[in-house]
Amino acid sequence: MASNYHDFHEFVKLMVRQDIIKTQRRRESMESHSPERRALLEYVEQFAAILTASGMQRMSARVFTYILVDDDVTYTAAEIAEGLGISLAAVSGAVRELISAGLLIKGRRASTRADVYRLNDEDIWGSIMLDRAGFLDRYQETAVAGIESLPAGPGRDRLVQTAAFMEFTKTEMTQMRERWNERRSELSAAFEARRRDREASH
């Protein structure tokens, strides 16, 4: 028992040390960049934290945000790894998940024949939103199973409401995505105009 506790304690200390080393290396890497580049990488971490809190894997969130906010159109795995200061193995897992989710597209750079990745610019945020549709389906199916097996009563009524809400949400999300695709250029331009007006008034 004491041996198991000791082994676990040593494992925890090792993980903490590795985390400290990674943090230090990331800080040193950040300090080697220009102020503009540091600002971009700091923003990547902020935005990625929000995506992670919403359910995206942390490394996938960092890779997605980096490609979203950096100015290049396509990136090799090596370029992503260098830009974020992460391993090629970490990039490989992240891009695989992002491609599966419809957020990245894999292509080939003609000059080098290297695999490259770019955003699925056609509908990034629609893809992110509707990526949750599978969860809604599972919630609805589970609620329906309860409706069919439980006797009439307040508990069953709440499950009916749950299933109806999931169905309503899926329909609304699909329609909202269609409206967004029709008007995204117009709405984006209007948002930027309002933002500049507010900035000018301060």
Automatic annotation (TrEMBL):
HTH marR-type domain boundaries: 54-108
A GO term for molecular function: DNA-binding transcription factor activity
UniProt KW keywords: DNA-binding, Transcription, Transcription regulation
Database matches in InterPro entries: ArsR-like_HTH (IPR011991), HTH-GbsR_regulator (IPR052362), HTH_MarR-typ (IPR000835), WH-like_DNA-bd_sf (IPR036388), WH_DNA-bd_sf (IPR036390)
One Pfam family it belongs to: MarR_2
Record's signal peptide: none
The keyword Transcription is annotated on this UniProt entry: yes
Gene3D superfamilies for the chain: Winged helix-like DNA-binding domain superfamily/Winged helix DNA-binding domain
Name of the protein in its database record: MarR family transcriptional regulator
